[in-house]
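Database export, one record per block. Field names are fixed; values are copied verbatim from the stored entry.
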Amino acid sequence: MTTKRKTKIVMAQSHSEFLTDTGVDIKQYFKHKSALIDQWLDQLMPGEDDSPAIIHQAMRYSLFAGGKRLRPVLAIATGEIFGADQNELIPAACSLEMIHTYSLIHDDLPAMDNDDLRRGMPTCHVKFGEAMAILAGDALLTQAFVTLADYQTQKPEIKNRVISEIAHAAATTRALIGGQVLDIQFEGKPVTGPQLEEIHRAKTGALIRCAVRIGAIIGGADPAELDAVTIYGEKAGLAFQVADDLLDETATSAELGKTAGKDAASHKATYTSLYGIDGAKDMADRLCREAITAIAATGRQTSVLEEIARFIVERRS
């Protein structure tokens, strides 16, 4: 029989807790929200000793290996703008981290990117074997939808919209898996700017766009506000990928927590290979400005999302 772990979960603080005389302390914001997300993830996941233990150990190994928690933080930050119920917002946000982690486990497999290092630790298939890593990824994707199905709500129509948003973002049409397919198909081949954008609006951008959209939906944003949030998510998602490509060229493996220079060695289509380092930097900065302009159009208190857009292009890992 599974023993339910009981830990008191501290609820999210408001944006105002992180405002300083010079703006938002985004490092403290991420630190607090990441700790909150990890508490919830621990409660939402099976325990390491739950049978069959090996699969739960593999799932938790990758899920708790670190990382920025960018997608759930974006969902929470957006939901807070619109006054979302935390008990609905945070489980939905956590489901995104489960899906993101599953995608990383599968990305690292020998049949795909064949990487030995992720978040500064041996990849799941190196630690647990290829078969168990495949199953751990499958199980995390499934657990995400268990989480979405199980959380309590007074607004089932909103919950249905959230589940639909996340399912579509993880699927094949202009979504996560479709982007991975395109990335594989274009490996080692010449690529145009529009083709590269199509890959990464899907592979990287879909979950980031989804994160801010579900935060807004749970918070009851109106159609115009949701449109502004969506543009922010699309711009921020592309900016994240451009910044990732720059880091692959300029950062060390120790800084990245994964193998530096892997994309170039694998002849992957990247923004730096297409536009050069300076051109990619200019693009990342432009996308950041466009994201900030879009979210400011809501007329809400959007300083945290503005700082997250800046963080996306200024980070070193």
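Remark 1: The CA atoms of residues 78 and 292 lie 13 Å apart.
Remark 2: The beta strands are 19-20, 23-24, 117-118, 121-122.
End of record.
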